[in-house]
Sequence to fold (291 residues):
Amino acid sequence: MSATSKLPGQQVSFRDSAFDPAASERYCLVAQVDKERFTFAVLDNLTNDFLAFESWFFKKAVTDALMAEQIERLCTDHAWLTNEFKRADVIVTTEKFTFVPAPLFDSSAAKEYLAFNVPLSENDVVRNDVLRQTDARTIYAVDRKLENALLKISPTIRIRHHLTTLTEKILASAKNQNEKKMHAHVRQGQFDLVISDNGKLLLSNVYTYHSGEDFIYFLLFASEQLKLNPEKFELEISGEIEETSAVAAMAKKYVRNIKFAGRGTEIRFAKEFEQFPPHFHYNLFALHYFS
Fold:
C-alpha cells in the first residue's frame, strides 16, 4: 500500500500498489457528497478491482455552498483527483427530491414538480435521474456552486441523487425474489429506507433520527403502513453503522430477520478495504453498476 500525503480534512486515505495515477484513463472514479463529508474511490475498469479510497470530513462545510468551496480547494491541491478518468460519477445527498412516474414526467415541468413538494432557492439547479428498475424519475435540486465544483473534477462527471443509486441497486438485487424486503442505509443523523416486494418498489424515502428509538419508530411505522410483519420480512442494513451500535441493537429487538449488506461478488476490493466492514460505503460502491 502507498498512502497519499495528508491534507487538511483528510480522514481516511489508502491505495493499493497496483493503482497508477498516471494511468487514470483506464480507471473509473466514484464519489459521494454528504453533509460535511466527501468520499471517493477508484475502480480499475479492466480488472474490476477497487484500488483506492479517500474520505474527507470538513466540519465547517454545513451548507452545500461551503462544501463546494472545500471541493474546489481539494481539486487544486490533490495530486490526482482531477486526472482524466475513463468515467466519473458522483451521488449527491439532498432532501430536496421527489419521485414522478415516467409516463407523467415532463422535463419542462420538472422544477414545478419539485417546488410543489420542497422549497427551492434561487441557487438550486433542478436535475432528474432515470429510475430504470421502476419506470420513474427522481427529481432533485443541487446547489449551483456545488454542481460547478463537481464539474471541476471532470467536465463530464455524471451527477445523481443518492436515492437513485440506492433504489436501483436494491430493486435489481430483489428482482425475481418472491418476498418483501426492507433495506435501511444509515448515514450520519439520517437513514434511507427502500422497501420492495418481488422487485417492485413500495417505498423509498429519507428519515432523520437522533437515537435508536427514532430509527425503529420510523422503520416500524413504514412497515405498518405497508402492512408488513416484522416477524416475516427481511431487513438488510448498510452504511456507516457498527453492528454493535444502539441503532442495530434496537432493530434486532423488533425485527426477526436482520442481516448486514455485503459487497457482492461481481467486483473485488484491494486488501486495504478490509479496514472497514463490507456494509460500509454501500451506496458509493453501488455506483459502478451505472456504467
Remarks:
- The longest helix spans residues 64-77.
